[in-house]
Amino acid sequence: MQMVLHIPKNDPPARSALLAAAASAVVALCLDERVGPGGEWEERYLTWKHSRIRKVARRARGAQWLAAQEVDGVTVEFAGAQARALVPGPVGEVDPRIRRLQISGTELPVEEEIAIDPEFPVLWVDAELGMTVGKAAAQVGHASMLLAGALPVRQAYAWAGTGFRCTVAEADPGHWAELQRRVARGDAVAVRDAGFTEVAPGSTTVIAVP
């Protein structure tokens, strides 16, 4: 799955808002009726889902961002940040308008404080890993998918009604330890990375709390 993050040169979004938009866009696409039975995206989505699920985040601005809107997918805007999750497909068949976008190069600072809204899920990123924006976007996208799959149907439906709104924040080592205990109790879901880029194989990157 290709993900496109809108990062304008002169007025970039807050890192946490951009990651929240990315997480929401991914789960919105995964639960879109067009990937369901008889939907126009069903075959492409199921082929990806039944193989190795991977995500790649790319950055875009200006005309690049507008062009990305023409490629099949779902865009989410949150607190001034925008991200688009594209319908998955083979690596060799990535749309040329997306393939030319850079995967790395632009970083956004981590905010010192994030307002946590208790009405919505929180996706906690392990601060110790120091992941780039692109890597973190892919990881919170994994987390939103796992969380939706773990929720009771009624609760997932209610979350859909909010546009899959969530908060993304970084957890320091002390808080991370408590989050891991919540995962062990079954109160949260964890993303463990395969380790292809940036982090060691098996690293827990994000913990999602309903």
From TrEMBL:
<dbReference type="InterPro" id="IPR023476">
    <property type="entry name" value="Pep_tRNA_hydro_II_dom_sf"/>
</dbReference>
<dbReference type="InterPro" id="IPR002833">
    <property type="entry name" value="PTH2"/>
</dbReference>
<protein>
    <recommendedName>
        <fullName>peptidyl-tRNA hydrolase</fullName>
        <ecNumber>3.1.1.29</ecNumber>
    </recommendedName>
</protein>
<keyword id="KW-0378">Hydrolase</keyword>
<dbReference type="GO" id="GO:0016787">
    <property type="term" value="F:hydrolase activity"/>
</dbReference>
<dbReference type="Pfam" id="PF01981">
    <property type="entry name" value="PTH2"/>
</dbReference>
